[in-house]
Amino acid sequence: MPKRDKNIKEITLKSGAKRYKYNTYIGLDPVTRKRAFANGTFRTYNEAKQSYDEVRAKGTKNYVKPKQKTVDDIYKVWFPAYQQTVKESTANKTKINYKVHIKPWFKNDYIDKINPIKFQKWVNELYKDLVKYKEVINRFGQIYDYASSLGYCERIYNPVNAVIIPKKTKRHRRNIKDNFYTLEQLQAFLKVAKKQNYRSYTYFLLLATTGLRKSEALALKWSDIDWDAGTVSVTKTLAVGIDNKLIVQTPKSLTSDRPIPLSKNMITVLKKYREKQNKIYSIIFHGFSDNYVNLSKPDRWLTAIYNADKSLKKITIHGFRHTYATLNKDQERTDVEAVMGHNSLEMTEHYTHATASGMERIRDNVNELDIK
Question: Nearest 5°: phi and psi at 248?
């Protein structure tokens, strides 16, 4: 009978059954630089011997721990839990970022063996390609920490903390310093818009005279308008949900949920716009069957207006929000920010105690500007 390997131990279970196990040192872990061990328990000596010889031959390079999981394995468990803690639009953005920026690099990498050099190269590529590259890196860090909480890796070795993360993006940012209209430029734009399409004219007039965000205006219903008070209530926003489905969700922040004063002309235009509709719709800027239009629709409206008159100064849709702030620059700052729904502790406290007189001052200023 051939001599048995002394590293294979025979044990007896409580049931009386025989098993064979080993626990052997296989070298220093290339990532953690800690001593690594391999172990296993088998039904027969031959099975144990075969496994033992294999792990000894491979060493730490290819050894897979019994509890070892890939980045993709962890993501599939982490994401459903994470999804319950954020808005659907945020979850969708995270899902896209993982699919586009994380999965191609690390899908099959074991979470406890992320190579620091490879991770640094990934960070460098994100830095070159994305403006919000830190957001993607932080998501990876969250996935790693979640794996750590499950016992698949050690929190102290989170690769996010082991690499150099650039402070500023290398990608060229769009110059937004001039991304607004003066009163004269706005009037010229609206004159062309009114001739081009009354719906898009109404939409951009609303943005310029209320400071609404693009998605807030698209989510509005006629029931949100208080004709007697001359205000519009912002209680929801249009967003892109999981699998890029259009959804309606709560506004961006606590202060985003707010009433906004409408100018006399804005009320007149809204009433005329509603009269022009062939039938009664519930959504102000509706599609063909009283459904919400896609978030990209206003961009097409804006392009059509600029194509109608090449001499118009071009700004982004968000530039109309900047325009509103600029046209009201001489008003009380906190009044303007409360109407615009800026998100800060200071504005939250101010908005809670906002007075009707503050709203009326803003309304009076917009009326005086006579934006048509």
Answer: -110, 130
Residue 62: predicted pLDDT: 55
d(Cα 205, Cα 316) in Å, to the nearest integer?
14
Using an 8 Å Cβ cutoff, are 112 and 68 in contact?
A: yes
In contact, 10 and 22? CB cutoff 8 Å: no
Quick: pLDDT tens for 261-303. Answer: 899 999 999 999 999 887 788 999 998 888 999 999 999 999 9
The list of the chain residues with pLDDT below 70 reads 1, 28-33, 59-67, 169-176, 252-257, 330-359
Q: Which amino acid is at 238?
A: L
pLDDT of residue 202: 96
Do residues 214 and 316 lie in contact, with contact meaning Cβ atoms separated by under 8 Å?
Answer: no
Which single residue is written with the structure tokens 């992320």?
Answer: 114
Q: Pull the structure tokens for residue 247.
A: 């959804």
What sign does the CA torsion over 275, 276, 279, 282 have?
Answer: negative
Q: Domains of the chain (ranges plus CATH)?
A: 9-58 (no CATH), 71-161 (1.10.150), 183-369 (1.10.443.10)
Of the candidates 336, 302, 52, 98, which has an alpha carbon nearest to the alpha carbon of residue 181? 302
Q: Using CA atoms of 337, 341, 346, 352 in order, give the dihedral in degrees to the nearest 10.
A: 110
Instruction: Give the H or E element holding residue 184.
Output: helix 183-196
As a whole number of Å, the CA-based R_g of the chain is: 30
b/e burial code for range 277-301 (CB count within 10 A of at least 16 → b): eeeebebbbbeeeeebbeeebbeeb
Q: For 54-79, how does the pLDDT look when each residue is reduced to its tens digit (9 = 90+)?
A: 888 876 555 555 568 899 999 999 99
First to last CA, the chain: 101
Query: What's the pLDDT score for residue 58?
Result: 75
Q: What's 157's DSSP letter?
A: G
pLDDT at 40: 84
**pTM (global) more than 0.85:** no
Four-CA torsion 344, 345, 350, 352, nearest 10 degrees: 110
